[in-house]
User: Fold this.
Amino acid sequence: MIKNGHQGSIWGQVGKATDAALASGALVAIRTTAATVADGGVEFVVREVSSLLEKFDAQAKAAPQRNPFLPYEEALYLGHLSPTHLALLNKFPVMGRHFLVISESFVHQETLLLPEDFIALARALGESDALAFYNAGRAAGASQRHRHLQVVPLPFEGASHGTPIDPALAAQQGKVGTDIADLGYRHALGWLQLETSPDSCGLAMHALYRRLIGLLGITSVATAEGDRQSSAYNLIATRSWMLIVPRTREHFASISINALGFAGSLFVRNDAERELVRRVGPRALLAAVTR
Assistant:
């Protein structure tokens, strides 16, 4: 575990903390059933979530003034990653070993990410094969205003390896640019070199992040409530690559789309939404919320 800035791994705590939190009721397991939908060479994983997640998601969006991270639930605590960030289990996981990297003090989810966010994230990732993602703004699928990045292990449940979009990204390995991978939606993609330490990795991730959002014209703007990002976006990243997707709206019809959708994992609530994904096609659905 990482405490007080010392390097280590948070992953060793996830299993034990999950078992204890499930036993106490602090963690709410969300049941899903998964199927794959092939589109453009990508095997999208489409999960139908239980009605329980819909209930809690509606509550979170109806009462955004409640901050679940101040104070956080002790039963979900995994450890401090740095003086400014800590790791918590996701209270409503739809994948196993899903956890959050949050700022200990309140930082708005719609302000641009800082070097310390990525240093904490890199310490959380360690040397594990995992995916980090960030929903920057309500239009990008964020349900909470308090700064929180999310981490899930790879491969995805229901996927044979890595993420479903890995083959499309690999064809552009080493390149940095906009709309360079055959994904079907607007994006900026860049690659990372393996660094000697998590903190070096975090700084490299932040530098690449700033370059990619710059390519998409996403900046910091002054508002009456303080500095905010100029537009919503999703970030997905591994220790090897980073993808930024600009967003214009959260939903396609009734289907809510967050960052995991752009990594190839879509969530639906019922058979009608699953059939809509099949009929429209995942790539067209994702493109529609990025224009």
Notes: The CA atoms of residues 255 and 268 lie 6 Å apart.
